[in-house]
């Protein structure tokens, strides 16, 4: 694993040309819910082929596929049993090749999800690892005996007190060999031991295989969990106990001591010489701005950008995602601004409101009934005018809302099901409260089928969909959206085109305006070209905002979500309910 510094900088920043992805917009496909082609109720790759025109019309530059690898589907594909094959649920490798060619022909790059913090327990590596204590692959995963002085299997005998992200302990006893294995997620997702160089070599080999197959990058699942704090004697430490039984494992598992070393090694082993054409985005829950810089400063040769979680945790109450509170807009602005400034001179931001783990943004931060169109377009405008690479999650461009699932039995996500089972077992929530908590916080909110049209299954499938179609598909769907020039869909098209055309959107400096305004999110973008002024009203009431720097009376309305521009009097602009505007200063205004 040698590294020649003379060639190191050749493939990035060879000149000052900004990387291609600074002007790109990424679209996330969650294949299981995008488009079914064979009537089994689950979306698939041939379904994607049918909808490529939708992506082309939208104007996106990249498609990121959530996992389509062979998988027992315990966590909808984030539990992989074969990294080099497509799950029959989604099609075949040949189908994938067709999809890649079809997207490339339209100038759209393809990014694969890469889940290498853990595998499925049905991956041959794990089968071998668990087969005996002497297995050559034993050390590929985290095996530990019961806590000292305790019998394996006794309550509390787990090697550490860490909790799994999906409730219960992060350790599972394997009866056959009498040891526990670590799983930070479900028990069917054992954590790989990145301390072992053979594990790393196998992962890098698989990644090269995918690049050679023609993919253009990776979205790296929980990549900042791959390095754990491990003592010289191999020990793992308990976390501080937070809720009686379990300790907080974050100090031991998040942004661990060898993380940056591993990422730099991955870069040398996999990306050296071809980095420029690729998109490398890490999912990094728990990363601070300082971490974000370490990951994305190009001179460090790690990643291009990372997904921060700070802004999507602001409305979490003590109970986390199942305990959402109203958004504090001031906090949201301050958080976003910190990342904008922190990664301005070195590094880059990934911008998102939604993905397959987050509730729908129009339901969460907007008004998904009376002002659905207005609030969805306002949220889009604010996000897409930041500096960074915006991510559009399937259906977000249609203004899709939370799922409206009514019964506990309607839920499919392992996280929601485990949460519900535990809350019931401990009598913590009534069924009514549970339906309410899941209704706003469940990951299933964003996993219902894409609403293509008003027919029975929204055009998603001819069969029975694996999860209920949102009943509002009769009015909220792509066909209706496409027919209306003022729709959420056409608004997204304009925002994407604007990023492609305006270097200030792409690279300009960012400055908040009226950071303390509780209901208006306003900022300027300035750089090589006329300054842009952006404002979004995060409420259903009219809001006033002072407009300094850009005189709106002389400014061009670049994009808005009402028919005309908002009224301005004596330097005060009055935004209408959920209104968003992007104004461009006249050339004589700097
Ligand atoms: O959504 C979460 C739980 O409330 C997050 O903690 C989530 O589990 C975390 O963002 C990691 O997400 C990724 O890895 C998980 C998988 O379940 C998610 O779908 C994936 O995006 C395990 O692979």
Mind explaining what this structure looks like?
With 590 residues, the chain is an alpha/beta fold. It has a domain of 76 residues: Golgi alpha-mannosidase II (Immunoglobulin-like), CATH 2.60.40. An eight-stranded parallel beta sheet has the order 13-12-9-5-2-1-17-16. Strands 18-19-20-25-22 form a five-stranded antiparallel beta sheet. The longest helix has 16 residues. 6-O-alpha-D-glucopyranosyl-D-fructose binds next to loops. The site of 6-O-alpha-D-glucopyranosyl-D-fructose (ISL) has 14 residues, from loops.
In CATH, the topology of the domain at 509-584 is named: Immunoglobulin-like
Radius of gyration: 24 Å
Low-confidence stretches: 1-14
Bound molecules: 6-O-alpha-D-glucopyranosyl-D-fructose
Helix content: 25-40%
> In order across it, which strands form the biggest sheet?
13-12-9-5-2-1-17-16
Query: What do the pLDDT scores average to?
Result: 95
Pairing-aware structural class of the strands and helices? alpha/beta
Topology (SSEs and partners):
Layout (H helix, E strand, L loop, with lengths): L4 H4 L17 E4 L15 H6 L1 H7 L3 E4 L3 E2 L11 E5 L6 H13 L3 E6 L9 H8 L11 E2 L26 E4 L4 E4 L14 H16 L4 E4 L19 E2 L5 E2 L1 H4 L5 H13 L7 E5 L5 H8 L8 E3 L2 H4 L2 E2 L2 E5 L4 H14 L7 E2 L9 H4 L7 H13 L4 E5 L20 H12 L5 H11 L36 H6 L4 H14 L1 H5 L1 E5 L6 E8 L1 E9 L5 E4 L9 E5 L7 E2 L2 E4 L4 E5 L6
Parallel strand pairs: 1-2, 1-17, 2-5, 5-9, 9-12, 12-13, 16-17
Antiparallel strand pairs: 3-4, 6-8, 7-8, 10-11, 14-15, 18-19, 19-20, 20-25, 21-24, 22-25, 23-24
Helix pairs in contact: 6-8, 13-17
